[in-house]
Amino acid sequence: MSILLSSVLNGLSFAALLFLIAGGFTLLYGIMRLLNLAHGALYLWGAYLAAAVISGTGNYLLAVLVAGGVVGIATVIGGVGLFARVQGNELREVLLTIAVSLVLADAALAVWGGHPVGVQAPEFLRGAADFMPVAFPIYRLFLMGLALAVGFGLWYLIERTSVGALLRACVDNRAMLASLGVNVRRLYWFVWMAGGFLAGVAGLLGSIVFGIAPGVDVQILLLALVVVVLGGLGSLSGAALGSLVVGLSYSFATVYAPELLYFIIFGPMLILLVIRPQGLRGANA
Amino acid sequence: MRLSVTSLAAQYGQGAALHDVSLEVAEGEVIGLIGRNGMGKTSTLRAVMRWPEPTVTAGRITVDGTDLTRGAAHRPARIGLGYVPQGRMIFGSLTVEENLSVLTRAFGRATVRAGLTRVWDLFPKLADIRNRRASVLSGGEQQMLAIGRALVGQPRILLLDEPSEGLAPSIVDELTGAIRNLANDGVGILLAEQNLTLAVSLTDRLLVLEQGRVVLARDSSGVDINDPTLRSHLGV
Amino acid sequence: MTTLMPQLTSRWTDQTNQNRRFLAVVITLVIVAVAPMFLQQFHVGLLTRIFFMGLLAMSLNVLVSLTRVLSLGHAGLFGVAAYVVAIGVTRWELPFLTAAAVALVVTGLVSMLFAVMIVRAQGVTFVMITVAQGMLLWGAAERWVSVTNGNNGIRGVRPPEFIQTANDFYWAAFAVVAVSVFALWRLHTSFLGTRLRGTGDSPTRMTSLGYSNAWHRFIAFTIAGLFAGVAGILYVGYFGFVSPTTLHVGNSVQVALAVILGGSALFLGPLLGTAVLLTARTWVVPVTDRWNLIVGALMIVTVLFLPNGLAGAFASAWAKLTRRIPRLAGRRSPDQNAPSAPAEPPGSSQPSGTPERPQH
Amino acid sequence: MRTRRWLPAVVGVVMLAACAGEGSEDGGGQFEDDDGTSQDDQADPGDAGEGGEPVRVGVLMPFSGPVAVSGELFVKGWELYWETHGTSAGGRTVEWVTGDTQADPSVAVEEARRLVEQENIDILVGPLLGSEGLAVGEYTESIGLPQVYGIPASEEFLRDIPDTIFRYGITHGQVSMPFGEWAAEQGYERVSTICSDYVTGWEICGGFINTFTDNGGEIVTQLWPPFGDTADLGPFMAQLAEQDHDAVYLGMPVGDAVAFFRAWTDFGLLDTVPVLGHHVTSSPSILKAMGLEAEGMISAGVFTGTLDDPVVEDFATRFEEAYGEPSDPDPALAWHAGALVRHGLEELDGDVSDADEFIAVLKQAEFPESVLGPLSVDEHGNVLYDVHIREARDRGDGVMENFVIDTYEQSGPNFRYDYDMYVEQPAYNRDYQGFDWPENCDAYISDCPLD
Q1: What is the dotted CATH code of the domain comprising D173-301+386-443?
Q2: Mind telling me how many Å the CA of D368 is from chain C's nearest CA?
Q3: pLDDT per residue over D222-231, tens digit each?
Q4: Which of A38, A218, C229, D14 could be C107's S-S partner, Cβ–Cβ 3.0 to 4.6 Å?
Q5: How many other CB atoms are there within 10 angstroms of residue A264's CB atom?
Q6: Complex ipTM more than 0.90, yes or no
C-alpha cells in the first residue's frame, strides 16, 4: 500500500518537475511556433549559473534571478539576433536550435568543466516530510506546489490578462496584429525572455534533483520533447497532461516493470504520435 | 492626411506581384481599387501595411511625407492607417471585446476606450455579443468586428479589402452604410473590390489593376458600369 | 530552397553539354579511383569514411530535399544494418556478403515499419517520431544484451575474403557508393523523384492529381532507410565493430548537420558536407578540444547565411566568377568543370508566379 | 541548373585536396604539442640530445562530450609525470600527442588511426571507456602497436584481450569482489544493491554480489536505474525505503552517484542504513558534489590520495599544487602509465618497434612502489593491486577524501577464485550476477567461505 502511495507521489513530483522543465519550451512553441532544441542547453546554463551563485552566496533568490535573468536575456539576444532571420522556415529553425545547443553545451564544458555538480535545496526544503505516511522529500512536495502555481500562473497570464490576449492574438495571426499597430517584436522579446527565464530557473529546480553534469542538456531536452509532444505541442494543458503521463508511467514502471524503463519514455510517445500526431491535447494540425 | 504610393513593385519570393502601382488617398476621399483575383489588389494593401509578404522591391509609400516603405510592421497603423484585410482575419481565440481591447498597448487606454464606444455605436450588434469568442461569429459579424477593430486606433485612412465578399446582400447594405458614414466623418478610404456596382456606388474615383499595374483611372461619377473596356478588364 | 528540376531545361538536352557532363563524371571517378595509390593510408581511410558517411547523408537527403522532412533517427537505420551484419558474421558465422544481404532485408523491413508510422506526420511531429524511433533502437542496442552485447558493442567483424588491404576496402566502398549515388541520382531525376518532391512541395496538388502523399512518403522513407543500410554495412565492414553510440540520436544529428552544411538542394551537397566535416575534424581536433563549438558555429553561419549550404555557396561564387571573367570561363569550358555560360545562382529556380499565402 | 555539372568534380577535388594538402607534411617532423605547452619546455635539457628519434606516445581520451573531465584529468596526471621525471627514457626523448575519442568507439578508432598514421606514434595510451578500449584494441592489434590501457576495464577483457594490449588497470569486479567479502565479514547480512543499468553497473554489482553471497550475505533486492543523469531516482528511493536491509550497495558512476546521494538524503534515508560504494561513486570531486552528507560513506578502490605511502603522498601533493584540486584516480592512472612507458623504454633501450616485446616487458614489471600502491602481475598478465576499503571524511580543510580502513593486498581480477573457472563464467551482466556461483569450494583457491 505504501509502495503504491509513494509511487503515486513520486510520479506526481516527477511530473511536476517535468512540467516545470517543459514550461519554457512549450511557451516558445505555443507563441512563436519555435521547436527550441536548444532548450536543454539553456537549462544546463541556468543550472550552472544557479549552482555558482548558490555556492558563492548561498542566496537562492539571487540564484533564481541570475539563472533566469541571464538565460532569459541570452534567449532574447539569440531570438532576435538569430531566429528572427529564419522564422517561418521550420527546417532551418530546428537546425539552428540544434547548432546553438551544440555551441552552448560545449561552451558550458569549457567554462564550468566536466566535474559533476550537486546542488542542495534551500535549508527549509531539505530532508523528508515526517507528516507523510511514507518518507517523501519536502522539496518534491514543493515542486508539486510550484508546478501548480506556475501552471495556474501561466494559464491566468494567457487566458485572463491583456498581455495574454495579445499573445493569443499573436498566435492567431501575427502579421494582422502588427498591421493593427501592435509592436509584435517587443511582444516577442517578452516571450523570448519568459521562455528563457523559465528554462534557466528549471535548471536550478532540476539540478537539485538530478545534479549537473555534461550531457544533462540532451537528456533534459529529450524529456521536455516527450512531455510536450505527448501532450500536444504548444498547449499548456497538454504539457501538464504529458508530464503526468510520463511521470506516473515512469514511477510505476520503476516498481512494476523495471526492465522496460529504457522504453517507457519513448515507446508510448511513438505509439501516441502514430495514432494521434497532434498529441493528447493538441488541436488538429 | 494623404497616403501616396509611387511606382510600387513587390514580389512573393521570386514571383513578382506588383510592377508599377501608384495611387493617392486623402482624408475624406473614397478610392476604389478594382480588378480580378490575383491582379494585385490584396498585394497592394499588404505592401502598404508592411506585411512580411509581398516584399517591396521598388517604389515609395509615404503618408504626409513620412516614408513607410521600410521600418517596423506596426508603424502604418500608428501613423493613422486602418486595415481591414481580405478574409477578415479576426482573432478567433479572443472574445469580441478582446479583439478590440488588444490594441490598448498600441494606442493607450483612453484611445481604445473611445474606440470601443465608437464601434459599439457603429455596430450595436457587436456590443451585445462582446463576450463571445470571435471564432463563433457569423460572417457579417466578423466583418463588422474586422472594421471595428481597424477603427479602434482612430485611423485617418482606412484600407478595406473586399468587405462584401461572401456576405448576404442585406448585410452588404448595412456595411455600405457604415462605410459611407465613415467617409462622411472624413476618414479616407481605399477600397479593394471586385464588385463593380458596389465600388462605383461607394467611391469617388476608381483605379483598375491588372497584372500588378494600374491600367485605368476614372472618376466614379463618370463611370458607366457597362463600359466594355472596363468590363473586359474586370473579366465580366 | 532550390530543387534540381527533373524536367531538364532545354540546355540539358543539348548533346555537347551532356557529353561534357559525362566526361566530368568519368574524370572524377577515375581520379577518385586511382587516388589511394598516391595517398597516405590515413587519407585512404578518411576518404573511405567520407564515402559511406556521405552516402548516409545523401540517403537522409532523400527525405530532406524531396519530401521536405527532417529525420533525427536516421542513424538508427544505419545502425540496424551494422548490427545485423555484426551479429550475422560473429554469431551466425555467415559470410560477410550473406550477412550484408540479410542486413539489407532487415533494414528494409524496419524502414517500412517506421515508414508506416510517419506517413501522416508533418514537420515537427515527423521530427519527433523519428527521434523516438532512433531512441528506441538505441535503447534496444543498449538493453538487449543477449543479442547486441549491450554497451560494449560487437567487435570482430571481418570484411569478405577478397578485401585484404585498406585500399581494397576503399575500392569496394567506392564501387558500392558510386553505384548507390548513381541510383539515388536516377531517383532524383525520375518521375518517381518528381512525385516525391511533389509530396514535399505541394501535397494538396499531389492529392488533386490523384497521387497518394502517404504512399510516396512511405516509399521515400523506405528508400532512404535502405541506402542508410548500405552505408551501415560499409561502416561495420570498415570499423569491424558496432556499438550503441552508432545509432544514437546524436549521431543522427551529425548526419543532418552534414546534409545542411553541404546543402540539401544540390544533389551532391550532403557528400560535400560530410567531406568537409570529416576532413575539418582531423585538422581541428589536434589543435583544440572545442570541436563541437566550432561545428555549432559553422552550422549557425550556414543556416543563417548559406541557405543552400557550401555547395550552394560554391555555385554562386562560381557563377559570379564566370560572369566576371566570361572569357576565361569560355576558354576553359571544353574542360570538365567549367560551364560555358554563367551558372544560375541557387534559388533562381523557385517556382515563380504563384505567390505563397502568408502564414496565418 | 548548370551548377550540377561541376559539382561531382568539386566534391572530388575538395576531398582529394583536403587530403593531399596534409599529405605532403610528414606528421612526425613538425610536431608541436597539442596541449598548448611546448614539448621543449618539458624536456629536461640535459636529456634532450640523448640521441635517436623521439618516442611518440598517443594519449587517446575523451576531451569532449559527457566524460570529457576524465580525459582532462588523465592528461593532467600524464603531463605531471613527465614534468616531474623529465621526458627522457631509455635514451630517447618522449613526446606525446593527444586524440579525442568523444566517448564514441568509432571516433576512438578513427583517432587511433590518425595518431598512428599521421602522428607516427609508437605507443598508444588509452582510451577511457570499455567499449572504446575493445574497439581500439582490435585496431592496435591489427597493426601491432603496443597499447597501454589503464582505466577500469570491461570484464570482457579477461576473456579475450589482444596480445598487444597491456591492461594495467583493474576490472570493476577486482575491486568489488573483495568489498563483498569485507561487507559480509563486517556483519552485513542483508544488502540491497542499486547499480546503473549498463555494463559498468552490472560489473560493479556482480563482483560484490558474487563474493557477498558466497560469504553468507543475502541480497534483498536489486535495483537498476537507467544510466543517465536525468533518471528520476524517487521511485527507487521509495523501494529502498521499504526494504529490511542493513546496507545499500551503490554502483552508479559519477553524476548518477551524485543524484543518488541527493535523493537518498532528501528521502530522509541518510540515517537509516550505510551506503557502500565503489571508487566510481566516491572520488573527491564526486564527494564534493555530494556534499557533507556523504561523510562516512564506505567504498572500495585502489587509489586514494590519503594513503600512507610516500610515493602516493608525493603524487597527491604535486597534483594538488599543480592543479588546485585533490588528486583523483584518473591522473594517478595516467601517472602510472607514464611510469610504465618509461619502464618499457628503459628495459628495451628505447626500442619499441616490437609491440609483443614491449608488452612482454611490461607484463614482467613489478612496481613495489607505485602511485597506485605495490603492483605485481599474475601469469595471465593481469595486474594485482592492493584493494582498499575506505571511508569518506573531511580531511580537515573542508575537502572530502577517502581514508583507508582496511586493505586486501595484491588482489587480482579473479580475487580468490580459480582464474580459469572464473573466466568460464559469463562477464557480469544483468542476468548473471554470480548469485549461485560457485557452488562449492572447487572454484576457490584460498580461504573458501563455502562449506
Answers
A1: 3.40.50.2300
A2: 33
A3: 999 988 767 7
A4: C229
A5: 20
A6: no
